Amino acid sequence: MGYTVKTTKLPVTASPRARQLKQTEGLLKAVVDAETEQLLGFTMFGVES
């Protein structure tokens, strides 16, 4: 669609809730338009996601 995208990945350990529940397996991933910083997509694989 003509976007210049950038992606960011974080481990679920970045979530205080996951650490509190001691279930830290998984990841968070965001896809963002590099020019406008608009969020294009987001996925969560982890506890209570």
UniProtKB/TrEMBL annotation:
Residues 2-47 form the Pyridine nucleotide-disulphide oxidoreductase dimerisation domain. Pfam families: Pyr_redox_dim (PF02852). This is Putative dihydrolipoyl dehydrogenase. InterPro entries: FAD/NAD-linked_Rdtase_dimer_sf, Pyr_nucl-diS_OxRdtase_dimer. It comes from Paenibacillus mucilaginosus 3016.
